[in-house]
Amino acid sequence: MRDPDAPRLPSSPGFWRSPLRGPWFTSVLGLVLLVGITVLFVTGLVSYAAYNPGLSPVNDKTPGKGILGFYLFAWPTDPHWLYRLNQGVHVTLGITLIPVLLAKLWSVVPRLFALPPARSLAHALERISLLLLVGGALFQFVTGVLNVQLDYVFPGSFYPLHFYGAWVFFAAFVAHALLRMPTVLRNLRHPREERNDLVSPRPAEPTVSRRGALWFVGGGSLLLFATTVGQNFDGPLRRTALLAPHGGGDPGSGPNGFQINKTAAYAGIDAAETGEGAWRLVVTGRTGTVRLRRDELLRLPLYSAALPIACVEGWSTSDQWWRGVRLRDLAALVGYDDDPPDVFVESLQRSGAFRKAALRANQVADPRSLLALYVNGEELSPDHGHPARIIVPAAPGVLNTKWVARMTFGDL
Ligand code: HEM
């Protein structure tokens, strides 16, 4: 039966009755978020650098970033699994932290309703920063998950929204973490002593201990981790990635049986254009333009490289054996014998982002960077970019252009 004295408004301290709430519970969750969200922020910024956005407008989905791009650097090609690791950590950790974020918000929910909304100017400013913190956290997590789960549904582009959102959220996060650190340290040292308005004045009977509640949150995180992380591996492990629709689907079997995001049909590739008779690779550079049929490409020296495909959405494959012509040998065909420059690559793809992409000179020069014609000993399948695709060590998946039609070296 309902207690007739029970406060009806969430702004009243007695309204919130869980005996679990209190500074210790909030502090422990805060500490986990401090570590986890810092890693998310760094791996997120690194992922943006991996696109080499300064190289060409086609690589840059956040062109107005201004000084927020101060940290950008030329993306390396070593170790060849760098993007795979970075993006696997970013997406898997982001999904794993969801229960911790929800528990943290639950632990402080009485404060969100506290009245008066501001007691002083300083308090008003802190409340505004909390708006950015809570709003920013929800925005980052929701946009990230939607981007992985769906073909993006938000208005505008995911990239700038998630990039600017990260800066706003992280600024509020740093301010909050600094302001609360003394509380966190006090509570971890003396878990039983501190009491404040997060502790309910009329607590209900406990149904679980505080430690039990933390195990519950940790269990939720573990479950999400276990149903996501498999998207970074092949074989039976990939089938455990129940929450990863792009990375987790069955990629088929055989040499071409590994993950893709975009099929040839989705990209609008017309089989008549990629056939032996019709397709030509157009390569332009210092000394002019050459047009190569597939059989002419096959007469050039062919090399192999074991490289993964790693997607911004967090899935990746293990190393596949690619075989094709070195990018630096193609540069040499058009006048760059010892000094391969940047290259601009265009696909036969009809529409969509990244049908054009630029690669930096260090990526072209790497002997493992190929215009691949074969994978795992077989011709590329249509969905993997037949007749020819780019594969570059440590580059994000979308820069490994499929169905390549034209390559322009130098003068980007
Ligand atoms: C996604 C990140 C986070 C969100 C959304 C968040 C949200 C909040 C909110 C809304 C409050 C109540 C503020 C008030 O009115 O006083 C709060 C309190 C608090 N937070 Fe966070 N927080 C986050 C991360 C952190 C981190 C990283 C730490 C650790 C340094 C932390 C430690 C605390 C502490 C100690 C309190 C106060 C508990 C008390 O006063 O007894 N939080 N948090």
Describe this structure in words.
It is a single chain. Helix 1 (23-50) packs antiparallel against helix 2 and helix 1 packs antiparallel against helix 6 (158-189). The strands form two sheets. A five-stranded mixed sheet has the order 2-1-10-5-6. It has 412 residues and is α+β, with helices and mostly antiparallel strands. It is 39% helix and 12% strand. It folds into two domains: 13-226, no CATH class; 271-409, Sulfite Oxidase, Chain A, domain 2, CATH 3.90.420. It has twelve helices and ten strands. The structure holds protoporphyrin IX containing FE. Protoporphyrin IX containing FE binds at residues 23, 26-27, 30-31, 33-34, 37, 101, 104-105, 108, 111-112, 130, 133-134, 137, 173, 176-177, 180-181, 183-184, 196, 198.
Layout: helices, strands, pairs:
Layout: H1 23-50, H2 82-96, H3 98-107, H4 109-112, H5 121-149, H6 158-189, H7 210-226, H8 245-248, H9 271-274, E1 281-285, E2 288-292, H10 294-298, E3 303-307, E4 320-326, H11 327-333, E5 343-347, E6 356-359, H12 361-365, E7 370-375, E8 378-379, E9 389-391, E10 404-409
Parallel strand pairs: 1-10
Antiparallel strand pairs: 1-2, 3-4, 4-7, 5-6, 5-10, 7-8, 7-9
